[in-house]
């Protein structure tokens, strides 16, 4: 089986003209009237090749575009990649992350083994250099990622390794950039790790296999520990929501609990964060079976749970100053003679009873037990992440995740983390009006609402299992997948959730 592309990131002080590299990437805004100092100097050495290209209208600096100028022996680089940054006033930190992703994606496609990034130059003092270093590192992991571990023919000779350097001619700048590179590499690596697990199909990853992956992850860090509850232990604990959803499959359900404990003690003002991730290793819908079209995409219904694995890896790699409990309920939702059925009434871990009206609304059935577990663990803040509803995908498409919750400050913190990480969110309601729709006549709750607002009623269901705890919910149905490749990424899993929630943890951790 092929390993994913290994990425190595470092910073180097070198003159832009002298830098020997396969590909030197520089940014260009669409509304910049002239070339910046570095590009102009390179252009002189290239006898005006850049200016000619721009004059011909072959490159306008639009976001997502790029153009290659070949070296002529007078500069160290074999190629220069001009990367479009769009309008200057629309710049965000994600502009630079995407520019790095675009560069790395191109490098892998053209089999360039080393890339040198001078993308930060164009941004001037807009962002702190460390922050830009982090974003560039994250972007190169993101853009170079390919999922091809089961492709046995190797005629394409895909790169095994990509060497990335962030360069500047000023050593004090390189030093500052370098500060963010290591965190960016930890986060990028954690996201790629998660993307591979997410992309693996359901015949490869089932609940027990996911649990084994979590155990293996924990073995790699002193600060991580992992406990797994199998179906017998779930029965002993009366986690009947998880058991009901898993009852149709030979692959029995699990509850995976990962604990991150910082090396040094953290003060009482730092919250213990519970991260709850939905891990349905395959969602056929169960007895309320889904239509055949695109059902293969339901291997990605474990994305929330796997994102939590990636976040725990990042937390441990960064040595964050906050306690984190990762709680991952894992089950396979299949129809069979042992499946749970529409009409069943389940007594969940919390004691609340739920009337099952649709076995395809299975995410909330496993999450309610996991959320109650997080409450019993005494987490100060609980955040769940789940590919929960097709309704969320209808509402927001694939660009932003739905964000619900019961605490204004927590919502704000997550919105800020989303802005910083480039994994975008949009606020949606989940209050009493929606909760009312989830009342059953014959049990405490039912598992589906009326026809409309499905993302909101699903969140309103979950809300009833967190008691008085501060809670937020990310519905990532839609954002978990790139149906087609883009300038910034190959197709398949997007790894959504790893960056935004790691960014949140970094913001609340003791510095
Ligand atoms: N995993 C799906 C939601 C989903 C849909 C994720 C499309 C990604 C893309 C979830 O378990 C589900 O089936 N939800 C149902 C709920 C309904 C029965 C109330 C849905 O959205 O149709
Ligand atoms: Mn479903
Ligand atoms: Zn599902």
CATH 2nd-level architecture of the largest domain: 3-Layer(aba) Sandwich
Please count the beta strands (DSSP E, at least 2 residues each): 20
Broad CATH class of the largest domain:
Alpha Beta
Write down the domain tally: 2
What overall form do the CA principal axes indicate? elongated
Structural class: alpha/beta
The biggest beta sheet reads: 9 strands, mixed
Helix count, DSSP H or I runs of 4 or more residues: 15
Proportion in β-strands = 15-25%
Helix content: 25-40%
Determine the CATH topology of the largest domain. Aminopeptidase
Summarize the structure.
With 511 residues, the chain is α/β, with parallel strands linked by helices. The chain is built from 15 helices and 20 strands.
Describe the protein.
By secondary structure, the chain is an alpha/beta fold. The protein folds into 2 domains: 191 residues, 3-Layer(aba) Sandwich (Leucine Aminopeptidase, subunit E, domain 1); 311 residues, Aminopeptidase, CATH 3.40.630.10. Helices cover 36% and strands 21% of the residues. It has 15 helices and 20 strands. Strands 7, 8, 9, 10, 11, 14, 15, 16 and 18 form a 9-stranded mixed β-sheet that branches. A 6-stranded mixed β-sheet has the order 1-6-5-2-4-3, sandwiched between helices. Strand 15, helix 12 and strand 16 form a beta-alpha-beta unit. Helix 8 packs antiparallel against helix 10. It is elongated and about 80 Å long. The mean pLDDT is 97. Zinc ion binds next to strand 10.
């Amino acid at each position: 089986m092929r390993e994913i592309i290994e990425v190595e990131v470092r910073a180097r002080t070198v003159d832009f003209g002298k830098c020997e590299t396969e590909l030197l990437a520089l940014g260009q805004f669409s509304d910049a009237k002239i070339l910046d100092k570095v590009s102009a100097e390179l252009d002189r050495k290239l006898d005006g090749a850049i200016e000619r290209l721009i004059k011909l209208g072959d490159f306008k600096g639009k976001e997502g575009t790029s153009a290659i100028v070949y070296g002529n022996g007078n500069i160290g680089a074999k190629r220069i990649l001009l990367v479009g940054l769009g309008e200057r006033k629309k710049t965000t930190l994600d502009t630079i992350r995407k520019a790095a992703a675009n560069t790395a994606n191109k490098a892998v496609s053209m089999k360039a083994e080393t890339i040198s990034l001078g993308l930060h130059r164009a941004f001037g003092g807009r962002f702190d250099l460390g922050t830009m270093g982090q974003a560039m590192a994250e972007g190169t992991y993101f853009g170079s990622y390919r999922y091809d571990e089961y492709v046995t023919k190797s005629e394409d000779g895909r790169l095994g390794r990509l060497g990335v350097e962030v360069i500047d001619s000023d050593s004090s700048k390189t030093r500052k950039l370098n500060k963010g590179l290591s965190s960016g590499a930890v986060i990028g690596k954690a996201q790629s790790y998660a993307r591979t697990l997410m992309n693996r199909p359901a015949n490869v990853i089932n609940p027990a296999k996911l649990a084994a992956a979590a155990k293996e992850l924990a073995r790699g860090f002193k600060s991580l520990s992992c406990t797994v509850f199998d179906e017998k232990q779930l029965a002993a604990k009366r986690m009947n929501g998880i058991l009901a959803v898993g009852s149709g499959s030979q692959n029995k359900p699990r509850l995976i609990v990962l604990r991150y404990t910082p090396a040094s003690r953290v003060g009482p003002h730092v919250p213990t964060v519970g991260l709850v991730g939905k891990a349905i290793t395959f969602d056929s819908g169960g007895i309320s079976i889904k239509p055949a079209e695109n059902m293969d995409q339901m291997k990605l219904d474990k994305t929330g749970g796997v994102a939590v694995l990636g976040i725990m890896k990042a937390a441990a790699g960064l040595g964050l100053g906050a306690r984190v409990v990762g709680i991952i309920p894992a089950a396979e939702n299949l129809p069979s003679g042992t499946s749970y059925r529409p009409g069943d009434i389940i007594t969940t871990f919390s004691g609340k009873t739920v009337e099952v009206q649709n076995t395809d609304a299975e995410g909330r059935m496993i999450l309610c037990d996991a959320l109650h577990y997080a409450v019993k663990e005494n987490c100060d803040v609980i955040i769940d992440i789940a590919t929960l509803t097709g309704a969320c995908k209808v509402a927001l498409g694939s660009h932003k995740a739905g964000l619900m919750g019961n605490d204004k400050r927590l919502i704000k913190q997550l919105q800020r983390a989303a802005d910083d990480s480039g994994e975008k969110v949009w606020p949606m309601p989940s209050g009493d009006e929606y909760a009312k729709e989830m009342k059953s006549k014959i049990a405490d709750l039912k598992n589906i609402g009326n026809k409309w607002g499905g993302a909101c009623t699903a969140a309103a269901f979950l809300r009833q299992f967190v008691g008085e705890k501060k809670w937020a919910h990310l519905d990532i149905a839609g954002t978990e997948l790139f149906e087609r490749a883009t300038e910034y990424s190959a197709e398949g899993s997007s790894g959504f959730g790893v960056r935004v929630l790691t960014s949140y943890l970094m913001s609340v951790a003791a510095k």
